[in-house]
Amino acid sequence: MGWLGALMGGRGMASAAICALLALFSIFAGKVFAVYCVVQSHDAFEEKEAKAELDVVFGRSVYETHLAAGEQFQLLKSEEEYPAFMIQQGFTEADDPQKVSSVEIMEFKKEYVSYLRELHADKPTYDAWRKKMEQKTAEAITLDPAILVEAVVENLGFADILFAFLGLATAFQLGRGKEQPVAAVAPQ
């Protein structure tokens, strides 16, 4: 970034600041891309470990629990019954329907109502349900920029900070250019 600024004749603090910001953005984008590539390429050990974890998260007992919840959800007559259902099915940590917050109810409506209705209507086989849940989980992990940014921030080390500082300083200096000497004004 700094070299481009210098080649284009950039001079001054504004040019330096722009070059530094572009350099910082480029460094961070490169780190995000590297994390994205690592997430996309699993080696055999990671896949075995992930499969074992998925067997717990998306096991047959979880499937059966979700199917039963879908059946029970269809028996509800109105949204006023949501808090008691949420407690019964473990969608909240509250122990009294009066203690279920409106935010929790809104999140339940947004995240789970359509899912429970779909489960009841489709009654998928275990294999079909698991495949769909694994796909949704993989999409959520790999496509969510917030997760990538969080992974980058968690994995920043001394070397990353050092090279970011050096990159910023270099881009700033090159973008600023050399100061033009002020021409002396001859006395008249």
> If you compute it from the alpha carbons, what radius of gyration comes out, rounded to the nearest whole angstrom?
28 Å
Strand content range: under 5%
Helix content: over 70%
Shape category: elongated
Alpha-beta classification: mainly alpha
Biggest sheet layout: none
The total domain count is 1
How would you describe the oligomerization state of the chains in this entry?
A: single chain
The helix count comes to: 9
Residue stretches low in confidence (pLDDT < 50, at least 5 long) are: none
The count of β-strands is 0
> What is the end-to-end distance?
44 Å
Mean pLDDT: 79
The sequence of SSEs as H and E is: HHHHHHHHH
What does this molecule look like?
The protein has 188 residues and is mostly helical. It has one domain (2-176). Helix content is 74%, strand content 0%. The protein has nine helices and no strands. α2 (13-40) runs antiparallel to α9 and α4 (60-74) crosses α6. The mean pLDDT is 79.
Summed up:
It contains 9 helices and no strands.
Task: Please describe the structure with a list of short key phrases separated by commas or semicolons.
188 residues, mainly alpha, elongated
